[in-house]
Design brief:
Mean pLDDT: 75
Low-confidence stretches: 13-34, 221-254
Structural class: alpha+beta
Number of strands: 7
Number of helices: 10
Distance between the termini: 34 Å
CATH class of the largest domain: Mainly Beta
Helix content: 25-40%
Number of domains: 2
Order of helices and strands: HHHEEEEHEHHHEHHEH
Length: about 250
């Protein structure tokens, strides 16, 4: 269980009060031309903030099932995916049960707890489909957040969108059947994937949905062989199966 008392605040509140707002820093979307601009959150930063962050970013390979964050463990690195999908997972106190509560792709970043001023997270973040991205050390991001109010506000807007996505996931889990939840999961993965092929397995999907693999075999995926990619364009009925509580979270409030 997550212990918020043990997660100390990373920010010096007195110092934050001394940070002045940047005058005349126009906020606009950067063109998706450079390699690192493949991440929509980075591409949305104001030019001065983008220039600051770029100095620290370095490329990283995101291997399948790699654990990027663990509950109650210090967060050392923050990742901005360019390709691939990350799952935000919550587990029971006995560690016998896990389920996915959020999805992160090229629309966002890991390290939400760092942006909120905490050293640890309540969730596990796993690589669901492998890809590549950019990363920087947590202490580097903290310094950037100290120096720029506009950067902090931009990342907090994304954190708000991620929280809204997690709330919608809770609604879908509470009101939707397995078919609706599966359709929603596939659509959200497709939103964050280039092309029409999703490299998801029955094993991973069953774990993320918190169901047995046997239950998935009755769904549209049942005809696919073990370990084979899912052709997204082959199930145009997915969008019609979404429950009312699901929505695409590729963008966040401006």
């Amino acid at each position: 269980m997550y212990d918020i008392e043990q997660s100390r605040c990373l920010y010096d509140t007195d110092r934050l009060g001394e940070v002045s707002r940047q005058d005349g820093a126009a906020r606009h979307c950067m063109p998706l031309a450079n390699n690192w601009d493949g991440n929509q959150l980075l591409a949305s930063l104001a030019a001065p903030d983008a220039a600051r962050v770029t100095q620290y970013l370095r490329p990283v390979r995101l291997e399948l099932r790699r654990c990027l964050e663990a509950p109650n463990r210090p967060i050392d690195m923050v990742y901005f995916p360019l390709r691939g999908i990350m799952s935000v997972v919550v587990g029971s106190s006995t560690r016998r049960h896990e389920t996915e509560v959020g999805v992160i792709g090229r629309d966002g970043m890991t390290g939400a707890a760092i942006v909120l001023g905490l050293a640890t997270s309540a969730f596990k973040v796993l690589v669901q489909t492998e890809g590549d991205g950019l990363c920087l050390a947590a202490h580097e991001l903290i310094q950037l957040l100290y120096d720029s109010v506009s950067l902090r506000c931009a990342l907090l807007r994304y954190i708000h969108a991620l929280a809204a996505q997690m709330a919608q996931t809770a609604l879908a889990n509470a009101t939707g059947n397995i078919t609706h939840r599966l359709a929603r999961t596939l659509l959200m993965a497709h939103d964050r994937t280039e092309g029409d092929e999703l490299r998801l397995t029955h094993e991973f999907l069953s774990k993320m949905l918190g169901v047995r693999r046997h239950g998935l075999r009755r769904e549209p995926l049942g005809s696919l062989g073990r370990g084979r990619p899912v052709p997204a364009n082959g199930h145009q009925g997915w969008s019609r199966l979404r429950c009312r509580g699901s929505w695409r979270c590729g963008l966040w409030p401006a």
